[in-house]
Amino acid sequence: MKTQASASLYKGFRFPSEIIGHCIWLYFRFSLSFRDVEEMMAERGVVLTYETIRQWCLKFGQTYANELKHRRPKTGDKWHLDEVCLKINGKTHYLWRAVDQDGNVLDILVQSRRKKQAAKRFFRKLLKGLQYVPRVIITDKLKSYGAAKREILPGVEHRQHKGLNNRAENSHQPTRLREKKMRRFKSAKQAQRFLSAFDPIAGHFQPRRHRLTAGELVNSLRSEQVWPSNVGNCPQS
Question: Where is the DDE domain (predicted)?
Answer without folding.
Answer: 77-202
